[in-house]
Amino acid sequence: MKLQLISMALATAAATGNAAGAVNVVCQTTKGAIDIVIRPEWSPKGAERFLQLVDAGHFNRVPFFRCLDGVLCQFGFPQSKAAAKKWSAIVDDMKQPALRQFKRGYISFAGAGTNSRTEHLFITLGEKVEHLGTQPWETPIGYVTPASMQQTVSRFNMSYGDIPPWGKGPDVQKLQGPGAAEYLNQNFPALDYIQSCKRR
């Protein structure tokens, strides 16, 4: 019974967007500002890491390098030398059953295995993307507000699609070296970027 009440409370909070302890972040992008609400009670470790990245200036000039219309838009490779710090992986957060079904606007870290979350994240673009949230490292840390999804995120360029070999997007191996910015400018001029992020 107690678990049911907790799950219902989480679901209600997710729907209303109201929660004590929520942290508001605004990111400036090439298509305008996006307002983000971080919910530490959803994913404590993930929320803490995201706010560390924000405070460290990690998101200064970061490309949305993998955007699949109706699925997700991924980011995390900084183009600023000052922000190109190596971040160690953090432990996965506990799953919240009430948040298993990712909703449009949810933000989560993009990992590559158990306890692999570092600095890469994605915004969910679809209203119901079945495979998102199935992995241990995929737990939402918060969400982009509906207004920002409509006014800004919906305008991001989706033409490159997935990364190779599944799409025409950038080669992730080329996004980690000193020539990354030039590589993107020459080959992917229509990419959108986060210019900066800060707490409100």
UniProtKB/TrEMBL annotation:
PROSITE patterns xref list: CSA_PPIASE_2 (PS50072)
One Pfam family, short name: Pro_isomerase
Keywords for the protein's UniProt record, in alphabetical order: Isomerase, Signal
Keyword Signal belongs to the record: yes
Residues of the PPIase cyclophilin-type domain: 32-157
Any one GO MF annotation of this record: isomerase activity
Database matches in SUPFAM superfamilies: Cyclophilin-like (SSF50891)
Coiled coil: none
Signal peptide: 1-19
Keyword Signal: yes
Protein name per UniProt: Peptidylprolyl isomerase
Organism: Jeongeupia naejangsanensis
